[in-house]
């Protein structure tokens, strides 16, 4: 079950023992109370590691064992004493500490429900919204109470409220609402099954471009979910957001009113563009253009409403839609390993389209050759660091930054075992 749980709820992996330790659905009265005592003991043990151990989160009360029939009175309560490690630069409790506390309580309750009442299912958080109502200071003790709003077979909705100090005073600090997707247990490992289907019979050496486009058309409706459970969003898209924050500082220093034009190659459903727009926003005067081989993916990206232009395009062919020196930033993720004409077409086109400016950059990924390729059976090309540097150099581009993501995303190898695929994430510019 461990692959079915989001990273922010990783502590709850140990709760898989609920189905063995706390069984049955027909118990009443004191039986439920006894189950809650056992649940609290298990949670207390499993929560004492990682981030929660570092932050000092502790379980104080649990009433979850009858939530299928008594949702209104079900809850989990945790506490966290505020120390220096929780503070921000202004001397107040860091918002991340508060959000983590809410997420911990919600994740525990949601996993308990999915595992106990949905036949050993897992869960993943789809979205979360936190509203802050007041600050907290060092030496305060925060108390979070998480309660289920909706408990369904497909989704759950939970709310968590953080209080300050004495429960009798009822002083609210923050309130979080999260939507949770239940992941049904299919032979104990739905993640593996989903990803096996994703990679089944996919080989760029034997598939035509039309077949590849059709495959991604099929994936497009579930792309948000697939990139979440495969951890692509957690790793690759998080890297994009990090780079965007650095870029934002550079743009603000240049103090220009000109459009900041971005070409997003292999757009997919628009995850990269969304990450850029969320960080840069309208303040940078950003203008997004996207290209992808799949009409289905382009349609999903169009729904975001952030791209000015979107085109269906095969990146093994020249990009004739645009003039030379058109873009300030070109992004290209998860596609170089699939191309037949990377060196002769795509890289020369990136060089041609990138503006000759000190602020212009290209962010591009290469599937990294670490000798243990999970996706090699799909005909994917892999690259070593020196090969990447030399490849870019041949096209008059120099590396500014090169970072290895050992776990860019998860994919089954030929044996069916889910393994991480490493990426080499490169920031480069024109060397002219």
UniProtKB/TrEMBL annotation:
GO terms for cellular component: cytosol. Gene3D superfamilies: Hotdog Thioesterase, Vaccinia Virus protein VP39. Residues 90-169 form the Thioesterase domain. Keywords: Hydrolase. Residues 262-356 form the Methyltransferase domain. One of its GO terms (molecular function) is 1,4-dihydroxy-2-naphthoyl-CoA thioesterase activity. This is Thioesterase domain-containing protein. It comes from Naegleria fowleri.
């Amino acid at each position: 079950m461990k692959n079915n749980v989001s990273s922010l709820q990783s502590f709850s992996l140990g709760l898989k023992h609920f189905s063995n330790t706390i069984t049955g659905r027909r118990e009443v009265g004191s039986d439920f109370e006894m189950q809650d005592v056992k649940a609290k003991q298990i949670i207390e043990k499993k929560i004492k590691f990682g981030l929660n151990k570092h932050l000092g989160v502790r379980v104080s009360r649990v009433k979850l064992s009858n939530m299928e029939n008594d949702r209104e009175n079900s809850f989990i309560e945790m506490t966290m004493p505020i120390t220096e490690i929780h503070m921000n630069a202004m001397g107040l409790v860091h918002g991340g500490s508060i959000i983590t506390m809410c997420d911990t309580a919600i994740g525990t309750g949601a996993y308990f429900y999915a595992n106990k009442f949905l036949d050993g299912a897992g869960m993943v958080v789809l979205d979360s919204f936190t509203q802050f109502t007041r600050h907290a200071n060092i030496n305060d003790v925060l108390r979070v109470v998480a309660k289920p709003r909706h408990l369904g077979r497909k989704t759950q909705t939970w709310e968590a409220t953080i209080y300050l100090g004495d429960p009798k005073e009822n002083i609210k600090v923050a309130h979080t609402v999260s939507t949770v997707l239940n992941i049904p247990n299919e032979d104990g490992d739905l993640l593996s099954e989903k990803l096996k289907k994703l990679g089944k019979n996919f080989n760029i050496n034997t598939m035509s471009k039309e077949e590849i486009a059709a495959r991604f058309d099929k994936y497009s409706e579930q792309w948000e979910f697939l990139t979440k459970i495969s951890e692509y969003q957690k790793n690759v898209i998080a890297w994009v957001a990090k780079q965007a924050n650095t870029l934002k500082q550079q743009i603000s220093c240049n103090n220009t009113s000109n459009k900041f034009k971005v070409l997003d190659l292999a757009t997919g459903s628009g995850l990269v563009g969304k990450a850029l727009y969320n960080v840069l926003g309208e303040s940078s005067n950003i203008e997004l253009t996207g290209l992808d081989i799949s009409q289905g993916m382009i349609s999903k990206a169009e729904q975001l409403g952030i791209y000015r232009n979107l085109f269906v395009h095969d990146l093994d062919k020249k990009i004739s839609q645009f003039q030379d020196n058109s873009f300030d930033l070109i992004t290209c993720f998860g596609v170089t390993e699939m191309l037949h004409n990377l060196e002769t077409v795509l890289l020369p086109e990136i060089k041609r389209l990138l503006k000759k400016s000190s602020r212009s950059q290209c962010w591009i990924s290469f599937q990294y050759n670490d000798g243990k390729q999970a996706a090699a059976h799909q005909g994917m090309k892999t690259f070593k660091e020196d090969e990447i540097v030399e490849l870019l150099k041949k096209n008059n581009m120099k590396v500014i930054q090169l970072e290895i993501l050992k776990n860019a995303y998860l994919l089954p190898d030929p044996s069916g075992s889910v393994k991480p695929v490493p990426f080499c994430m490169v920031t480069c510019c024109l060397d002219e």
